[in-house]
Amino acid sequence: MAAVAPAMLSAPASAQELSEKATRTFMEYSWTLTPERFTKPNGETILIDKSKRDEVQVPLDVAREVIRAGRLSAHAQACGLAKEQGDNHNSLMRRHLDSKRWSPQQIVYINQLHLTVVMLLTGRIKLVEKGEGEGTDKEVVVAEEAQKNTQTCSAEQKEKVKEMIAAYVKSGPALASSDKPASGSAAATGSTTVVPKTTAE
Predict the structure, then answer these.
(1) Do residues 23 and 67 lie in contact, with contact meaning Cβ atoms separated by under 8 Å?
(2) Using alpha carbons only, how large is the chain's radius of gyration in Å?
(3) Which of 92, 107, 131, 143 is deepest in the core (most CB within 10 A)?
(4) For the segment 10-47, what is each residue's pLDDT rounded down to a tens digit?
(5) What is the spatial distance between Cα 133 and Cα 138, in angstroms, rounded to a whole number?
(6) Tens digit of pLDDT for each residue in 124-144?
(7) Whose CA is closest to 9, among 111, 114, 123, 112?
(8) Is the dihedral of CA 13, 160, 194, 125 positive or negative?
């Protein structure tokens, strides 16, 4: 997976369709990083029972959509498009909030899945093998600053990413100009640090 991430980022997001295995892999890593307690800006706390994974995770097709959006956000981050990255994340979260389909715990998971994809693809977290041999477990750890991937973005790629995000945002609910990340966390777009496993500010 570590070798797949840079390749996924270097190709156009629309040119690749995630396999079920890749989708479930992203879901697994994001579940590892999903906090047990999430505090919203208004002070409301959402508790997540990590023993009830099936009740918190979302269906495969929804996860695939979230991962596609996360991949776009990663492209935007690599191209230095902070506003577009934020708009892309806000549009994703607004769609799922407005759908009224998901529990508060599932909304936290959707946000975490997006964040995990961005951080994996931009090298902010990496996978470390635990043990040796085939089928070895992998652990998600924060990458050291010096080891983060340095992504390049041509002017053509930058324009393409802008167009793709504009089309995605246009196809969803209208965003207010004052919109902040739907989760209320600056880390939600993956442009800062990993959300702690205990509390998200």
Answers:
(1) yes
(2) 16
(3) 92
(4) 444 444 578 899 999 999 999 999 999 999 888 999 99
(5) 12
(6) 877 665 555 444 455 555 555
(7) 123
(8) positive
